[in-house]
Amino acid sequence: xxxxxxxxxxxxxxxxxxxxxxxxxxxxxxxxxxxxxxxxxxxxxxxxxxxxxxxxxxxxxxxxxxxxxxxxxxxxxxxxxxxxxxxxxxxxxxxxxxxxxxxxxxxxxxxxxxxxxxxxxxxxxxxxxxxxxxxxxxxxxxxxxxxxxxxxxxxxxxxxxxxxxxxxxxxxxxxxxxxxxxxxxxxxxxxxxxxxxxxxxxxxxxxxxxxx
Amino acid sequence: xxxxxxxxxxxxxxxxxxxxxxxxxxxxxxxxxxxxxxxxxxxxxxxxxxxxxxxxxxxxxxxxxxxxxxxxxxxxxxxxxxxxxxxxxxxxxxxxxxxxxxxxxxxxxxxxxxxxxxxxxxxxxxxxxxxxxxxxxxxxxxxxxxxxxxxxxxxxxxxxxxxxxxxxxxxxxxxxxxxxxxxxxxxxxxxxxxxxxxxxxxxxxxxxxxxx
DNA sequence: TTAAATACAGGACAGTTGTCCTGTTTTGTC
DNA sequence: GACAAAACAGGACAACTGTCCTGTATTTAA
Lengths: 212, 212
What we know:
The structure is a homodimer. The first copy, chain A, has about 210 residues and is mainly α. In chain A, about 75% of the residues lie in helices and about 0% in strands. Chain A contains nine helices and no strands. Chain A has helices at about 15-30, 40-45, 50-55, 60-85, 90-110, 115-125, 130-155, 165-185, 190-205. Chain A is elongated and about 70 Å long. At the A-B interface, α6, α7, α8 and α9 of A face α6, α7, α8 and α9 of B. The structure holds a DNA duplex (30 and 30 nucleotides).
């Protein structure tokens, strides 16, 4: 399996690499099969590390879970949501693009394992204060990024009674919930529908005044 | 603890009652602490039943989980969502009322344990086909009930390009996601915001034509 | 009344889990 | 090169989990 240079008992330490490999493996397991359903012996096998190495880097499973959230889940939200929305012309276009990307990726792999953040949020929020704080922080950054983009949309033709924070909250909630429904039905249909609905609503509300 | 009529070894069989007590206890545990985090010995203690009784009514934990979903979760969605929406004058009013009821109940108890259906959906959908089917069926009934009510709203002043199914999907998704965010932040704020946003959007789209 | 079926009691059991502990190897530092 | 610290190996261990099994009490049917 692993490369054996020449001598039978040769080892080369790579603490940083091993840690990354562990967190990567744990991220994949925790976000697909769940935190409690992923046994450490499976992670050790999949990552190719021994019990001693695991205990050295992460004294408890909880510490590993926390690292997964803070390192990988936060990064995933940044890469798949925040960055594309920021880079897009308008918020609506950004959201449309994000949904399209995620949908096509799910169709390619043929299974819906759900939103990593949402999966861990529902499983771990009430279990530990540190988990809750880490998850809440990611939700906040996500929401804030969308709200900022919405406010930027309004710079040109400013509309008074438009609450960017509220709309950003709706976007994040609708996406999270749509992904939950997609996971339950193992179909991307809820995502398609909610993506279209959200972009349509935002375009209406940001292009011109609405009610009242 | 339990009533002892007079003689020391007197027992009175109540299979139906015992079953209900078990499912109730399991529903409370599964929807707050989670399915995997709830050990059977805790359920036995809380419900006041022995291992033999449990095994007699539910041969496996999986069978108990399935009963919780089909009996209690489905009923909870019916009582807290479907019935109030059906009884309301309009869909928007119904949704507003549902959100208000849930929010005030959460504020009273001081903690957010999340939407029972959503909690179990994310934890169990990918674990078992029977779980997935049962959960998907509840989502479908929920969505359909809202869509029916939306179509009823339009009877008077019919609007052509209004997709009731799509809006119902958005409503369910937004609620589920908002509850997930509420659980992560242990605050009802996301629910308040999404409730207001949804009712506002629906009122706009059902009262008069929108874009195009 | 009797016999069979149902309902329940209570514990045994094997498998699994996360953690810890004792050694060995590698790496940095003087 | 010596030495301490870090990095890893590999297994022991106790606690816990779900399931099953044998026995007893209650209810039902005849």
